[in-house]
Amino acid sequence: MPTRQPISLGLSMRYIGYHAASWRHPQAQPGAGSDFRHFVRLAQSAEAAKFDMLFLADGIGIRAKDAPPGALQQTAQSTVLEPLTLLSGLAAVTERIGLVATASTTYNEPFHIARKYASLDSISGGRAGWNIVTSWSEAEARNFGRDKHMDHGPRYARAAEFVEVVKGLWDSWDADAFVHDKASGTFFDPAKMHVLDHQGEHFRVRGPLDIPRSPQGRPVLVQAGASDAGIGIAAANAEVVYSVAHDLNGAKSYYDKVKNAVATAGRNPSGCKIMPGITTFIAPTETEAREKYEQLNALVPEALGLSYLYGQMGDLSGHDLDGPVPEPTDPAVRSIAKGLLALAQRDNLSIRQLYTTIAAGFGTRILIGTPRQVVDELEAWVEAGAADGFNLCPPVLPSAFDDFVAMALPELRRRGLFREEYSGTTLREHLGVTVPNSRYGGAVVPRE
Amino acid sequence: MPTRQPISLGLSMRYIGYHAASWRHPQAQPGAGSDFRHFVRLAQSAEAAKFDMLFLADGIGIRAKDAPPGALQQTAQSTVLEPLTLLSGLAAVTERIGLVATASTTYNEPFHIARKYASLDSISGGRAGWNIVTSWSEAEARNFGRDKHMDHGPRYARAAEFVEVVKGLWDSWDADAFVHDKASGTFFDPAKMHVLDHQGEHFRVRGPLDIPRSPQGRPVLVQAGASDAGIGIAAANAEVVYSVAHDLNGAKSYYDKVKNAVATAGRNPSGCKIMPGITTFIAPTETEAREKYEQLNALVPEALGLSYLYGQMGDLSGHDLDGPVPEPTDPAVRSIAKGLLALAQRDNLSIRQLYTTIAAGFGTRILIGTPRQVVDELEAWVEAGAADGFNLCPPVLPSAFDDFVAMALPELRRRGLFREEYSGTTLREHLGVTVPNSRYGGAVVPRE
Ligand SMILES: Cc1cc2nc3c(=O)[nH]c(=O)nc-3n(C[C@H](O)[C@H](O)[C@H](O)COP(=O)(O)O)c2cc1C
Ligand SMILES: Cc1cc2nc3c(=O)[nH]c(=O)nc-3n(C[C@H](O)[C@H](O)[C@H](O)COP(=O)(O)O)c2cc1C
C-alpha cells in the first residue's frame, strides 16, 4: 500500500447530536446539550481517537422565530453552551485535540475576536481555530439591534475587512519580542511590537493586541459559507473549509473551485483542507444501520419536521405530508426554495421524506451502512479529490460518535487513511498547515 | 467570642502581581502573566484556602499610549490572558471557588455578555460573576472605532440599560422550563420561556437567551466604579462592590453611602458586600515585611514610575524626583490631578514617593507588616463597618499570595473572621447572597 496523506477528522459536537429527535432516543440524556460533563466526555473520547479537532457551530440566539406553532418546544437544538467558554473549559481537560469555535463577523468586533482566540490558543498550548461565518438568521439580527439580517454584499465586505483586522492584531508581537531582561528592566523589545492602526470602511482599530503571539503562531482559520463571496474569504484566509456536499460530483467541483481560488490568491492549495460535513449511522449490518436511522426518524413530530421547510417554503401543514412537495406560491420564497425543490424532484420525495432528510443531520450528507460501506464512501471522496477530511456531525451524542470510533475508525486505519497517534501538539501540526508569516516579517513561533 | 459573619475574600490575580516591578523580583517568572499554568496554580491555591472567588480586572487593549517614552517596555502589565477564556479554563480544574470576570458595558453587546456569563455559570456549576465596569481609557476607545472615550453621563446611561437587558435575558427561562418529556416530544414548556423584547435608548434586544437558566439562578453581579453614577448601578444591581479606599474614614463613609443607596433602591443592604482592594506585604517581622516592600520599589525604573503620573499630571521627567510634587500647569490636567496632589500634600511626598505608592499596588491600599498587624487592620475595618471583605491584589504572584495564606489566613481564622471550609457550592452561597427573583415570577433554581 502506498503511503498516503492521512485525512483530517473533526467532531462537530453540538447539542446531543444533529438529528432533530436525538433527545428522544431511548438512551439520550435530554439535558446533556447544556451539560459541561457531556462535552468533557466527548472531547476526551475524540482525543483518545486522535481526531484533529473539536468543532462548534454557532448561532447567537434561538433561530426559530420562523417555525410553525408548536415546533420550537419540540427541539433540543435551541439551547447550547457558548462556544468560546465551552472550548476554553475543554482546553483544560484535554492536551492535544484542536478546538475550533464559530464566531460571526456580523455581530462581533474584531478586537474581541482576535483577543479571545489568541487567549484560547495560549490556554490550550496552540490548539485554537476560528470558524469564520457571517450568520444567516433574522433571530440573530434582532438580538443585536437590527430588524433584519445584513444583506449578503455588505455582510461579506464587512467579513473580509474583519478578518484582515484580526490577522493584523495577531501580528502585533513578534514571537521573540518578550526578552524579559530583569537586569536592564526591559520586558519586551519595542521594535518587535507592531501597532496595526487599521482605518477601513467598516472598522477603525488601533492595536496592538494585549496578548503575546500565540503558541501556534496564529490560530487556525476555518471558513464555512458556500457563496462566491464566502469562497473569496476562504481563498484569502482559510486553512480549513467546512462545506456541505451531498454527491460526489458536486463535492468535487466545489473542491476544485476552492482550491483554484486558493491558488489564484497566491497560496498553496494544500494549505487549505476541505472538510465536508457527514452524519453517519453505522452498524455491523446495513439492516441494523438503517434501523437506527428509521428509529430516530419516527421520533420527529410533524410540526418539528415541517419547521425545517418553513423558513424556505412557508407553512406546508395543510398539505398531505406523504404527497409531493408543492411549488411554492410566494415568489419571494421561490428562489431560496429552489435547492430544496430540486432535491425533492430529483429523488421524487414526499414532503415528509424531504423534511426527514434534512432533519436527520441538519442538512448534512447522511451515510448509512456497515463500517466498510461508510469508509468506502469516505475513501472514494478522498481518492476522487473531493475532500481532504470530514467534519463528523453525529446524529446522537455520544452513541453515534462512539459507533464511528468503534467501527469506522479501525477500518479507516486499516486502509492507512487515518493516524494511529498524534505526531504534533498543535492543531496546525495535526492538519499539516504551516504557520503564516507575519506581515511585519518578524519571528512567528517561539524558539525552543 | 461571639459568632460573627465571616468576611468574604477574593483573589485578584492579574499579571504576576500588581506591583509595577513584580516581574523583576528574583523569584518571579516574567512570562507567567500569560501562562495558563500560573493561573491554574493560583486558582487551586485560592480554592484550597477557601477563598470566595477569583477576580480578574480587565482593560481591552494596552492602556499605555499616554506613557512617557521608554516606560511601556518596562512593564509586564500590558499583556494578559482574556478573562472569560481564562476563567472558563479554570472552571474545569476547580470545584468550589467563584469566578468573577470584568467586562465593560461600553465596548460590548448585552446579548454576548448575558450568554457568555450564563455559559460560564453553567460550566462551573454556579460559580460565575460579572464585574460591571464602564472602562476608562482612550486606548480601549481606539480599539473599537472611537477617537476618545465615551463621556461619563452617556457611558453610565448605557451601562444602566445594558445591565437591565442582561438581567432580562437571564430571566428568559424559568428553572423548571425544561420538562424533557420524551413520550410527548415536549422538550420545554413554552409558557416558561420568556421573550424579553427590549426596546430602549441604547439597545434593542429581542431574546430569549439560548442558554437555560444558570445553576445559581443568575450569575453574581459585581460593580466597580466610584462615582455617583457608578453607585447608582451598584445600588440597583450589585451583590458585590469592589472599591478602592485608603483610610478608614473614607472607607466607612463610602460603605455607608453605598449601603444606603442599596436600601433606597429597595434591596437588603446585607445582600451587597463591599470589598475594598488591598495589597499586602507580610513577613514574620515588620522589618522583613518592609524590606520586601523596599526591595520591589527599588526595581521600579524612573520612567515606569513616572508613567503612573503621566496621564494625570503630564511629563514630570524634567523635575527633581526627590523634590516636591509640582502644581500642574496645564489647566485641563488640573482637575483630574487633584486627588493625587492631595495625597502628596497630605503625606508630604516627593515625586518618587508618590509614584512608588501608586506603583506598588496599582493604586490599591497597601498594608505592610506582621500577620497580626495586617489582620488587625482588616478586623478594624470590618468592625467599624467599612468593609464586608477584601479583594486581595498581591504585589507578586504567587509568592505574596502564598504569604497571605500562610501567615494572615490562620490569624483571620483564629479570630473567627474567615471560614475553615466551604459550606456551599455556588458563589452565591459563599457570599451569602440570595438568588434574585425572576421578573416573570417563575422558578429561579432547579429543584433538587
Ligand atoms: C458548512 C457550513 C456551516 C456553517 N456554519 C455556520 C454556523 O455555525 N453559524 C452561522 O452563523 N453560519 C454558518 N454557516 C452559514 C454561513 O456563515 C453563511 O452565513 C451563510 O451560509 C450564507 O453565506 P454563503 O451565501 O456564503 O453560504 C455555515 C455555512 C456552511 C456552508
Ligand atoms: C476598584 C475599582 C476597580 C475597577 N476596575 C476596573 C477594571 O477592571 N476595568 C475597567 O475598565 N475599569 C475599572 N474600573 C473603572 C470603572 O469602571 C469606571 O470606568 C471608572 O472608575 C470611572 O467610573 P467612576 O467615575 O464611576 O469611578 C474600576 C474602578 C474601581 C473603583
Automatic annotation (TrEMBL), chains A, B:
Pfam families: Bac_luciferase
Annotated EC: 1.-.-.-
Broad EC category: oxidoreductase
One GO MF term attached to the UniProt entry: oxidoreductase activity
Annotated Luciferase-like domain residues: 25-386
Keywords: Flavoprotein, FMN, Monooxygenase, Oxidoreductase
Similarity section: Belongs to the NtaA/SnaA/DszA monooxygenase family.
Protein name: LLM class flavin-dependent oxidoreductase
